[in-house]
Amino acid sequence: MAKLNLVLLFGGRSSEHSISCATAAGVLGAIDRTKYNVIAVGITKQGVFVPAADDPAKWALRKGQLATVEDEGSRIELAMDGSREITRLDITGARSSLGQVDVVFPVLHGPFGEDGTMQGYLELLNVPYVGNGVLASAAGMDKEFTKALFEAAEVPVTPHVVIHETEWKSSPAEALERVAKLGALPLFVKPARAGSSVGVSKVKSMSEFATAAKLAFENDTKLVVEKGLVGREVECAVISGRDGQEPRVSVAGEIIVTGRDFYDFEAKYQDEDSVDLVIPAELTDQELQVMQAIAARAFKSLGCEGLARVDFFLTADGFFVNEINTMPGFTPLSMFPSLWQASGLAYVDLIDELIYLALNK
Fold it and tell me: Based on the domain organization, do 336 and 346 belong to the same domain?
């Protein structure tokens, strides 16, 4: 059986550029090379498609060091005529075909990659791709609309308000009145369309709110203010069912943060000593069943395809969905694949399954 030409697409213009590179490192190091001819394509922070090294070590996340895709002069072009041809244009001007693309694995995080823009581009190319489509990607990236769709589907969500930058500038007092209705502190202030906790602040005094809002608005034109819930942070992973079957949901994992205010960017990627990832989480059978059922409903409420990670707070009042991530971190040690490994699906087999789902949408 001939190998499939798989384009691994990573990097991108978002603040999560280096996290995408780390995800690519995980896939490059594990994918079954007897089944796939991997074509590594990086996207620079300026949005240029370039040939990338097929070298997991080059893109791996290291403490104090974040990998980036650099423009060294060569280019990658994807045909817009329906032929699915991928071409390399060298710095000398020499052009060579890399063959026809069978499937794209876009391990892009954040805006310009995880938000429906890249998915729309791949739809125009008529190329199968791993993961969620345009609508689910766009809705999952925008916390305002994610929560609205969850509420419509009766998925319990964190109490919140949305503030647009124009509103904050023109009527800050009115915005703060809505924030006050959330109740007691602390609050979490987040850019509405960013990930990996970029631009997120924990507000323990209202004197800190303006600074938190400023940081969030540096990353987006609207922010979400969420009530800080007292409870455990637990997550589960979801992949589509085959042939129209129900989504499949993993066991649960728990994030226990010590020595930091919350699970921020540094805790996730640079200060692993401050975090314990417990898999499987200690839940009763009934709690796990409820959590898995809510995760599947959240997945379906956005029209998700392929994969997602659903993040919860488990409080005295039950489960509340905090966020859904439609292209979660994918290194072998990331929560999403780790949850599936604990559920009996090895990392390399998880990659295979996601490619299968992409080819059989």
Answer: yes
